[in-house]
Amino acid sequence: MQRFFILVAVCLLSGCLTAPPKEAAKPTLMPRAQSYRDLTHLPVPTGKIFVSVYNIQDETGQFKPYPASNFSTAVPQSATAMLVTALKDSRWFIPLERQGLQNLLNERKIIRAAQENGTVGVNNRMPLQSLTAANIMVEGSIIGYESNVKSGGAGARYFGIGADTQYQ
């Protein structure tokens, strides 16, 4: 009888076991896309174009779990910086980052007011130069995102316990 209870206990407890986690592949840098190579291999222009880049917002509302965080956006929040880098790498454009333009204008007002009152510091006594005007203005939003993650695994999950894996 005691053997029967041990056998039943072993069978019941074996259902709580999960497969050992698979070792994740080492992280690698994503290779540059063909469009980036096309952009950087354009012929050299006769003159560069000034382009102002305003804020590129994420309007997808997509969130994706990451191992180190519980709540993270699926789309990178640095789209403006990525666009400025791509424009600069093309050698066709001189990007004028305008994402923080309102803060810059406020600071310039403070400096001008201090210059008029005579209370300006030694480093701000020179008159302010005007801002560079742009030939093109870029502003936009990210409105779509599709994930390439599929889930799967072995066995069944009960109350959130079980074996599963996410594949890319």
Structural class: alpha/beta
Unreliable spans are: none
| Strands, count | 5
Helix content: 25-40%
State Rg.
28 Å
Helical run tally:
4
Largest sheet: 3 strands, parallel
CATH homology superfamily name of the domain at 33-100 and 132-143: ABC-type transport auxiliary lipoprotein component
CATH fold descriptor of the domain at 33-100 and 132-143? Rossmann fold
For the record, the CATH architecture of the domain at 33-100 and 132-143 stands as 3-Layer(aba) Sandwich
CATH C-level category of the domain at 33-100 and 132-143: Alpha Beta
Distance between the termini: 50 Å
Could you spell the SSE succession in H and E letters?
Answer: HHEHEHEEE
Percent strand: 15-25%
Could you explain how this protein is built, in words?
The chain has 168 residues and is α/β, with parallel strands linked by helices. It has a domain at 33-100 and 132-143: ABC-type transport auxiliary lipoprotein component (Rossmann fold, 3-Layer(aba) Sandwich). It is 29% helix and 17% strand. It has four helices and five strands; from the N terminus they run ααβαβαβββ. It has helices spanning 2-14, 34-40, 79-89, 101-117, and strands spanning 49-58, 93-97, 136-142, 150-152, 165-167. Strands 2-1-3 form a three-stranded parallel beta sheet, covered by helices on one side. It has a two-stranded antiparallel sheet with strand order 4-5. Strand 1, helix 3 (79-89) and strand 2 form a beta-alpha-beta unit. The mean pLDDT is 78.
